[in-house]
Design goal:
The protein is about 5% helix and about 35% strand. By secondary structure, the protein is mostly beta strands. It has one domain. The strands form two sheets. A four-stranded antiparallel sheet has the order 1-2-3-4, with no helix packed on it. A three-stranded antiparallel sheet has the order 5-6-7, with no helix packed on it.
Length: about 100
């Protein structure tokens, strides 16, 4: 069950066991972080608006969700990647699971 989601400053890959976050800040090399899916205790998602990027964040045991910000500053957290508003992506995330 491979899944890939692309955002503005990064991409998220899921292979059924591992979550791989690849982030690239403007002017910097891409960085990659891997999380074992079984270790994720929660997620946070903030939809993008016309003025601000949205984000997806994975919460791990013993950590608190990063504080919500209205700037691209949340992209500095390695558990978070940003995205822009996209009607087709929003519809895809709301599709019921089988």
């Amino acid at each position: 069950m491979d899944m890939q989601v692309k955002g503005v400053l990064g991409e998220i890959y899921f292979d059924g066991e591992w979550i791989t976050i690849r982030k690239k800040a403007p002017g910097q090399r891409a960085q990659e972080f891997r999380l074992r899916a079984a270790d994720v205790t929660g997620t946070r998602h903030k939809p993008a608006s016309r003025l601000f990027h949205g984000y997806v964040q994975f919460v791990l045991p013993g950590s608190q969700p990063a504080p919500e910000k209205t700037t691209s500053g949340t992209a500095a957290d390695h558990r978070t990647t940003t995205h822009t508003a996209c009607p087709s992506a929003t519809a895809a995330t709301r599709r019921p699971r089988n």
